[in-house]
Amino acid sequence: MTEITRDVVIVGAGAAGLTAANQLKKAGLSVAVLEARDRVGGRLWTDTIEGAMLEIGGQWVSPDQDALKETIAELGLETFDRYRDGDSVYVGPDGVAHRFTGEMFPVSPDTERIIAEVTERLDAMVAEIDPDRPWAHPRAAEWDTISWDAWLHQQTDDDEAIRNLAFPTGSAMLTKPTHAFSLLQSLLMAASAGSYSNLVDADFILDKRVVGGLQQVPLLLAERLGDDVYLGQAVRTLEYTDAGVTAIADRMTVRARRAVLALAPVLYHRISFVPPMPRLQHQMHQHLSMGFVIKVHAVYETPFWRAQGLSGTAFSPYEISHEAYDNTNHGDERGTLVGFVSDRLADDLFRVSAAERRERILTSLSHYYGPEAMNPVVYYESDWGSEEWTRGAYAASFDLGGLHRYGADLRTPVGPIRFACSDLAGAGYQHVDGAIRMGRLVAEQIIEEIHA
């Protein structure tokens, strides 16, 4: 058993932990980053599957993600625009693929009017929300004790409007059934992106990608830390007093003045805390859970949809794959589509055989792109729900009523222990941008404390 002493021990080598470690090291503090996996990156993971480079985890960069954009530039990485020339496709309740351009789906005039009115209402509500303090809003308790689904049903009885309004924060982002989280949680999701309209706008949210994959961000950050990153070191016990911490991993022990837990809160319980965490944390962490989404990668000999005048962008609240995009890599002659299957639909698909699951998902994609979508040369499903050190996707959110009850305490230190990950972010919540922001924030706090 190796024993080392550092100023700060960081648990988790994702974007948050590695950002914090680099900031601390720049300030002259010694660090050790302990990572349970055999790789760095956390929910960022680029791999080659059957000869195709696939971004198995997070991949997109939005115009508002300043922390991520600064990091990408500072690391010398290049970005490229997501392909979006041509028509988008929408499948409505009639099961027919309708081509369209612009942001509004091709729905009836009445449904379009309702969607526009409720979107305007939501944008006004979101403008009042501080993403770092959503529980501080005067109506926080009221908005946190009604489900997103129930609130939408109060606005209209138009089912197609409800499905399309529910989609951006439900299936697309929180990846939970809309009855399982609150209106306030939905407003926070939108506020973290600047507005509800931003979440609806795929051209905004899914703007650019990094040449060679977004996992290069944590890989390059880890490279700078050199031997201070330890892989395959799951922290089993964290002993702490006001004087410092002792992190006990599988093959090493780190004594430090501070600890940063830079992993999803659903994993905190995998660590035995000595003494136990305070009652507040015990309760709070039980009200946070991961969403669930299957990210489907289908690679074809050519991007055949482009020849049909399609952008590759597709939506439907009635399809198994509720959204899909052209995900062709930079400079690649082959074409790649990425589709998403969320919450209960994802549950259901993992109850059938792998062959039937593939058939159902590709059939859904064929409803957007035609029969050619049925025959990819490479097919792969990102299943983060089966990852021991993640347990879902994209991030953790509170159950109904949990955000206003516990949100203010999410980042509260416990003795020498600090918390940082995208799940705890305000701006950039659930995104790499939020992870970087949280890594910077916690590093600043520790530097101030230690240098005080």
TrEMBL record:
Pfam families: Amino_oxidase. Substrate binds at F340. Coiled coil: none annotated. Residues 16-447 form the Amine oxidase domain. Gene3D superfamilies: FAD/NAD(P)-binding domain (3.50.50.60). FAD binds at E35, A36, V235. Keywords: Oxidoreductase. Its cofactor is FAD. GO terms for molecular function: oxidoreductase activity. Belongs to the flavin monoamine oxidase family. This is Putrescine oxidase. The lineage of its organism: Bacteria, Bacillati, Actinomycetota, Actinomycetes, Micrococcales.
